Amino acid sequence: MLRRLYLSPVGYIISLVMNVVGIFTRPFMVYGYYCRPDKRFLRYTRISSSVKVLDANQFRVGDHCWIGHYSIIDASGGVTLGEGVQFGFLSAIFSHSSHASIRLLGKRYIDMPTEQRLGLERAPVKVGDYCFIGTGSILLPGTVLGKGCVVAVGSVVRGEFPDHSVIAGNPARRVGDTRKHDTPYINEPGIDETYFDPERLAELRRLQQQDNIESQTS
Predict the structure, then answer these.
(1) Are 169 and 195 within one domain?
(2) How far apart are CA 194 and CA 198, in angstroms?
(3) pLDDT at 212
(4) Residue 56 φ/ψ, nearest 5 degrees
(5) Is the model's pLDDT at 165 over the cut of 90?
(6) What is the pLDDT of residues 69-114, one digit of tens each?
(7) Disulfide-capable partner of 75 in 67, 69, 79, 90 (CB 3.0 to 4.6 Å)?
């Protein structure tokens, strides 16, 4: 029904109205988000009013997340964000690709039901707890990030990356470890109550002690 409406002469009016509204609407951060798959309200998650979520029924997100202005989440193939994930402005997640489908189907593409489109690729995207995705980055179908990762500004990411990876480039690759950046702060007051991964914090302290012993004996 909606497709017919958009393709009819009325569709031009709808498009005009939507574009005019867009001109006069400034984005703002919306506090709280209802996660449809889990049927729960996330009190501390903040998502910009300008963020576009496609197929929200397949968008699973943890609490304490933050998604900046003008980002897009294509959840048609399934998207899962862990707790505390942050996305910079103008970022994108794509869980489907139709580049082959439009060539294979040509002009019939628009008339074909989505599930019947030849060559359509779908693969879920998963982002672990407390990852930080830099402004302008793109996560492609099938991408899996472990917890505590950082994606550099403007990266184009596809593939699987382990916990605490620093990821950069186009195509993106692993260029470092976020634990290196955390180590100088692991003995700060109150860090035991706030650090997102207590087991990893204990590991970092053990490694630091070993390094201190080795430096004293060398």
Answers:
(1) no
(2) 9
(3) 78
(4) -60, -20
(5) yes
(6) 999 999 999 999 999 999 999 999 999 999 999 999 999 998 889 8
(7) 79
Report how far apart, in Å, the C-alpha atoms of 186 and of each of 107, 137, 209, 218 are. Answer: 58, 29, 12, 24
Of 138, 139, 105, 141, nearest in space to 122 by CA: 141
Average pLDDT, the chain: 91
Measured CA distances, 44 to 38, 119, 143 (Å):
15, 39, 25
Residue 121: strand pairing partners: 97
Do residues 164 and 182 share a domain? no
Provide the residue range defining the domain that includes 152: 2-177
The token pair that represents 218 in the structure block? 């060398």
Number of domains into which the chain is organized: 2
Which of 98, 95, 94, 93 shows the shortest CA–CA distance to 114? 98
Residue 165's identity, in one-letter code, is S
Question: pLDDT tens, 9-24?
Answer: 777 677 677 667 666 7
Q: Are the C-beta atoms of residues 156 and 171 closer than 8 Å to each other?
A: yes
Residue (of 208, 158, 165, 160) closest to 188 by Cα position = 208
